[in-house]
Design a protein that fits this description.
two-stranded parallel ribbon, 50% helix, Beta Polymerase, domain 2, 13 helices, globular, alpha+beta, 9 strands
């Protein structure tokens, strides 16, 4: 898990790598807490700064920021808009207002809407939630792991072909034998985690969109923003993708220089340390500021920028490409659904829970990558972090 929106992404990657191999350190919990406090704050301040510099290029008018915690707040705001409203937009808003509970209103979002004085939506920015990061890491890791297991199974088949003295392409393997070889290959890969022999490839485990901003506008207006980015001295476009079909937008991954002075000043001036008093770190330490935590921090972070029109935005929230339905499809359509990728998701969700909990000194996690667990195991582990009864037995 290499989160390019975090300035301590290498430290976080190494902690996750140790946990995957069953070799956590006693200091990991404290370090996780420090990273999530520091890096999360940096992403938030940087997104705010980017929004305040990008939106005036598209809209030559004042805008205001409104923090939102549920998707229902966003969808209600969409239906209040009166600009760029097509018959399709009106129909989708009507359907939503008739049966709002059908549209995942309570889905959480850590976001900020940017609206003008007439309450028209101009854009928004958000930080992806830990649960969604863990799910996405599961998919990335599963794809990488599936390839490793397939390669191992193929080598086993090649060994059998060599024993028979025939080329691999002439080897006919019964389906049950293929399934057996795949299971054996999976177990072999699992043992390599236990033995510490696995080598993690950072590239397929990279996630670039923990921090994201969406700017709405007519194509010629958002094109001005893209031209602005191409010549910006402190921003580099590292990826560009045109999305067509049910969901239409232009996705850019930006490598952005963040401002340490701005971040540290904002942390002090807004007394943001008060938000972290329940994280197991002494209040006096939190009051010292972020300066001790930003040593060895990466000078840039990656941010996802989505350029879209208002009608396409409405389609993605109320129409044929509802975001939550895409999430459900991603969960259901995984190519590889074995224990290993599920344990990755469990471990990462627990890892984030440690960083958000009041505990900074924990026992090693009982979940191992090579074991088999039910979701109940993860729930009991997280309950323990928050000093709740580990199990909810009746008697």
């Amino acid at each position: 898990m290499y989160l390019t929106s975090f300035v301590h992404r290498q430290d976080l990657f190494e902690i996750a790598e140790r946990w995957f191999c069953g070799r956590p350190r006693r200091t990991d919990a404290l370090r996780l807490t420090q990273i999530l406090i520091c890096d999360g704050f940096i992403v938030g301040v940087t997104l705010e700064s980017i929004a305040r510099s990008f939106l005036p290029i598209v809209y030559e008018r004042t805008f205001y920021e409104k923090r939102i915690r549920t998707k229902g707040e966003l969808r209600d705001a969409i239906c209040r808009c009166t600009s760029d409203v097509t018959p399709r937009v009106l129909e989708l808003c009507r359907r939503y207002q008739e049966t709002p509970d059908f549209y995942y209103r309570e889905a959480p979002i850590n976001g900020v809407m940017c609206v003008d004085e007439h309450d028209q939506l101009l854009g928004l920015y958000r930080i992806k939630r830990p649960k969604r990061i863990a799910e996405k890491a599961n998919r990335h890791f599963a794809a990488w792991l599936f390839k490793a297991v397939q390669n191992k199974a193929r080598r086993m088949a090649e060994d059998r072909a060599q024993e028979w003295g025939i080329p691999i392409e002439y080897l006919v393997t019964p389906e049950k034998e293929m399934e057996k070889e795949f299971v054996e290959a999976e177990r072999s890969i699992a043992r390599s985690f236990l033995d510490g022999r696995i080598e993690f490839d950072r590239a397929p485990l990279t996630i670039n969109d923990v921090g994201g901003i969406k700017v709405l506008g007519e194509p010629e207006k958002v094109a001005r923003l893209e031209s602005f980015l191409e010549s910006h001295p402190n921003i580099r476009i590292v990826e560009r993708e045109e999305l067509r079909g049910h969901y239409q937008a232009t996705n850019l991954i930006l490598d952005v220089e963040w401002d340490p002075e701005l971040v540290c000043r904002r942390y002090r001036d807004s007394r943001s340390w008060e938000n972290y008093l329940n994280r197991g770190i002494p209040e006096d330490t939190l009051k010292e500021g972020l300066e001790p935590l930003i040593e060895n921090a990466a000078p840039t972070i990656c941010i996802e920028l989505i350029l879209s029109t208002f009608p396409d935005m409405v389609e993605s929230e109320l129409g044929n490409s509802i975001h939550e339905e895409r999430i459900i499809q991603q969960r259901d359509n995984r190519e590889y659904k074995g224990c290993l990728p599920m344990n990755v998701e469990f471990l990462l969700e627990y890892l984030f829970s440690v960083g958000f909990s009041p505990e900074v000194d924990i026992e090693p996690p009982t979940i191992k990558l090579w074991g088999r667990y039910l979701p109940d195991t993860l729930v009991s582990q997280i309950r323990r972090l928050y000093r709740l009864p580990e199990y909810d037995f009746f008697y």
